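Morning. Coffee machine broken again, so started the prediction first thing and wrote up yesterday's gels while waiting. Chain of 140 residues, entered below exactly as on the submission form.
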Amino acid sequence: MAEKMLREAIENGEFDDLPGKGEPIDLRENPFEDPDLRTVHRLLRNAGFAPAWIEERKDIDAELAAAQTKLTRAWALFGEEGKAKFEAEWERSVKEFREQVVALQQRIRIYNLKAPAAVFHRKHIDVERILESIKRNEAG
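Came back before lunch.
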């Protein structure tokens, strides 16, 4: 019944004179955002910053990427087959990477508590998958 009435109103042109007709919707403001925080978030966004939990996610991702790059370089130098004399160096590099990941895992746990919804949570780091990926990419 309601749909029929809306359709008839549209066909009769009753919505043609509404303000903003034909203009894009302004989506810069989040209608579900806490009004008390809206001004703060706008100021941060205009200054090039994001809420603290987003900045924390960026920092975690950047630190993980740097650690992976360092480990990839170590594999190229010390880990390839035939370089048995450098095995201790490779193992030291893996140990350092694992220690960094332990610290990052703790930061991820805290970040996941700060994130406003589960959709924003960061998955924990799978060290073994990263190690296999580094070895496979270099070997391939």
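The chain has five helices and no strands. Going to sketch it on the whiteboard this afternoon.
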